[in-house]
TrEMBL record:
Class of the enzyme per the UniProt entry, highest EC level: hydrolase
Entry-linked InterPro entries: AAA+_ATPase, P-loop_NTPase, Signal_recog_particl_SRP54_hlx, SR_rcpt_FtsY, SRP/SRP_N, SRP54_GTPase_dom, SRP54_N_sf
Pfam families: SRP54, SRP54_N
Alphabetized HAMAP family for the sequence: FtsY (MF_00920)
Name this protein carries in UniProt: Signal recognition particle receptor FtsY
């Protein structure tokens, strides 16, 4: 059905679609002097100054409409409502005593915050209550909010564009985490930043994965490099070479989903990474792991295993729109504080947004 799947990788033309976003910034030209711009104050691209303007000017994409932002926050709160309900009810008319702390400990553990993060939060909260002589339950709740934000803040870092030409991203994750869909959404976000994108279907063993990526390529008017079968590393290598020849800004390489316990498959990921490096020195520049926000402490185990194998540079947390508890980010912040570039709460393009610690904690405690 698709013309993508030849024995040799082949560039695939796709149909032009109407852009989903209107926010635009000046076209990025990484070979010129880089200048930072801010998108929603978190995702940054680098673009040269206009010819008649001095270097160093900041180009900011217009913020989303207020109603769109509020809709996003409301859906994030709805996605984390299970944890929010368990935490916020503790402070309704509560007495500040050991019983409250015990109930809070149970609530944090049930939210997948993990033993270490939970104990650190409780010890810090007790100290804060004592030092500041807090006597009202609402004051204690606000203190917990401050501590949670401080714990998650190290995860709030921007993805910087334009550092390399092309910028090569390798995306990993287990089957079912939403990896391929996330790649499609991220491609559209990058396009709204005037970045040209090329996709590589590195999951050569699953026809469904290649077809899904091809569909996203058509939606976004993005070329997809694919092979019906063969070596994933070869597909990744060809994609990087094609992007270099075309002058493409960003290459995103999908990889086969696998469990971190499947050691032979993890070795294959390492091979893909090595081959990409042969195709372009210093690449891949971003090694991203997509994790399902519903998997609890298993998500932390995935982060540790993939980080040990690949040295991850960023995370994308998906599916925070159902039974997700959200506390696992606290566990990740303590065990492996790898930047969380994006969080996802649904299937729409706009449902993938930059992670903001304060917004996330407010959703947990609202």
């Amino acid at each position: 059905m698709f013309s993508f799947f030849k024995k040799k990788p082949k560039d695939v033309p796709v149909e032009t679609q109407e852009p989903a976003f209107e926010e635009k910034v000046p076209e990025a030209m990484p070979e010129a002097a880089a200048q930072k711009s801010s998108w929603l104050d978190r995702i940054r691209g680098e673009a040269p100054a206009a010819p008649a303007e001095p270097q160093g000017e900041i180009f900011a994409a217009p913020p989303p409409p207020a109603e769109q932002k509020q809709s996003w926050l409301n859906r994030l709160k709805a996605g984390l409502s299970k944890t929010s309900s368990n935490l916020t009810t503790l402070f309704v008319g509560a007495k500040i005593d050991d019983d409250l702390y015990e109930e809070l400990e149970s609530a944090l553990l049930m939210a997948d915050a993990g033993v270490e993060a939970t104990q650190i939060l409780l010890n810090a909260l007790k100290k804060k209550v004592k030092d500041e002589k807090l006597t009202e339950s609402e004051q204690v709740k606000n203190a917990l909010r401050t501590l949670l934000i401080d714990m998650l803040k190290p995860l709030q870092k921007p993805m910087v564009l334009g550092r390399h030409q092309p910028l090569v991203m390798m995306i990993a994750g287990v089957n079912g985490a939403g990896k391929t869909t996330t790649i499609g959404k991220l491609a559209r976000h990058l396009q709204s930043y005037e970045q040209s994108v090329l996709l590589a279907a590195g999951d050569t063993f699953r026809a469904a994965a290649r077809e899904q990526l091809a569909i996203w390529g058509q939606r976004n008017n993005v070329t997809v490099i694919a092979q019906e079968s063969g070596d994933p590393a070869a597909v990744a290598f060809d994609a990087v070479q094609s992007a270099k020849a075309r002058g493409t800004n960003v290459v995103m390489i999908d990889t086969a989903g696998r469990l971190p316990t499947q050691l032979h498959l993890m070795e294959e990921l390492k091979k893909v990474k090595r081959v990409i490096g042969k195709g372009m020195e210093s690449a891949p520049h971003e090694l991203l792991l997509v994790i399902d926000g519903n998997t609890g402490q298993n998500a932390l185990a995935q982060v540790k295993a993939f980080d040990d194998a690949l040295q991850l540079t960023g995370l994308i947390v998906t599916k925070l729109d159902g039974t997700a508890k959200g506390g696992v980010l606290a566990a990740i912040a303590r065990a492996r504080p790898i930047p969380v570039y994006f969080i996802g709460i649904g299937e729409k393009i706009e449902d993938l947004q930059p992670f903001n610690a304060e917004e996330f904690v407010d959703a947990l405690l609202s």
